[in-house]
Amino acid sequence: MKKIFLILTISCLIFSCNANEKKEESNNVAQKDSVSDTRIEKLKQAFEKDDYVTFFKLFPDTYSELIDFYGFDDETGKKPLYDFYETHIYYFFKSKEKISFKTFVSKVYKIAKDGVWEADGIGLFQSNLSELIISKPNIFLEILTMKPNKEITSFWHFVFDGSGKYDLQNKEKFETIYNKINTLDKKQGRLLKDEFERMYK
């Protein structure tokens, strides 16, 4: 009898612990969603008020946040800011000298380094990034030279991802960016070229 009582007591304790853990996990998810929703609303308001500094601070800091804000999921549909991706991303890349360019490029790098191409907002971000590298390669090199090779490779992967093997536009983009980077830094040029060739050999 004591044995049965002990087993029942232990079972109840385990069930209680599991229930508390699930409740805590659920509360954490809800709290995270609430913070995210508030940030999204404030981001929209900053755009509407043409408050670039606040918009920049609230804009995604990572690739996963960029997806969570502006992406599209085949199963769940549009993310909260999907309908605004075009105006928001163009606005983001027009930094208007309201923040230092190095700060701006650092944020762009942090988003891109873990990214993979997707259509719509992510593709538009990638396109603007490519133009920025072509126009300001020195600033990117300042950041890249401080990073480990694996992270640099991941960055270049995002820059050239999403095209077919024989896509001439992507090949032209590669040649333009490679020539700019390689002229300034042979090591970075080699890392860029190796990753592109690995992706499209």
UniProtKB/TrEMBL annotation:
N-terminal signal peptide: 1-19
UniProt keyword list: Signal
Domain of life, per lineage: Bacteria
UniProt keyword Signal, yes or no: yes
The UniProt record lists the keyword Signal: yes
Protein name (database record): Lipoprotein
